[in-house]
Amino acid sequence: MLTRNLCCEEKIVGSVESYLKQFIPPVVIDALNDFRYRGKYGFSGDYQNWKDALNNSSGYGSPDILASVEEATVKLRAGEAVYERDSVLFEEVMYSWPLLAGLLRVASHDDGYLGVLDFGGSLGTSYYQNKTFLSNLRKIRWCVVEQPSFVDVGLKSFQDDVLTFYHNISECNKNEKINVVLLSGVLQYLEHPHGDSAPSRPPTTIELGHPI
Predict the structure, then answer these.
(1) How many domains in the chain?
(2) Can you tell me the mean pLDDT for 152-181?
(3) Which tens digit of pLDDT belongs to each residue from 179-188?
(4) Is residue 16 in a domain?
(5) Is 6 inside a domain boundary?
(6) What is the distance between the alpha carbons of residues 33 and 36, in angstroms, rounded to a whole number?
(7) CATH code at position 129
(8) Which of 29, 46, 77, 133 is the most exposed place for a label (fewest CB within 10 A)?
(9) What is the Cα–Cα distance from 175 to 63, expressed in whole angstroms?
(10) pTM of the full structure
């Protein structure tokens, strides 16, 4: 009951904010958002190297984040929601049409086969997002390369004939036929995004959500 009431309150607050935005100048909204989210998001610090920055940050490797993502993905598969991103559940799928068009184009040039190396793909967020539109392809292999803790949970609870998980890129390439690499907002979290830790690139690479 508490959760339901909180959700209702959040929806009411969101509706009020949307209504008020119609009458407030954009410059004022920007200033309010800057004050509201200052210190929570964005870039901060002046670190000399990657290690120092890493030691002063928390990240996607937190057990709490994994638990939240796992719980949300279980609910997604059970039909309690239709879309999940970063452990947040939605009642409507937010499609990335450029991504979907790219995936279908790759499959169309490979006799209906789609082999995805989803680098940093959580527990299959992008697969669940697009699976409805990919269901008529001849064959799909959606291979997520993730942190060890995510891979272990994925193999135990979410692997099926299409979706699978690998600890590293070489293991995936050894066992799968990959014709597209998906990089969705992940390269900026690698110490050497163009080095050994980055995925090798087949003829098609789809990159989304990277800061410029």
Answers:
(1) 1
(2) 95
(3) 999 998 888 7
(4) no
(5) no
(6) 5
(7) 3.40.50.150
(8) 46
(9) 28
(10) 0.75
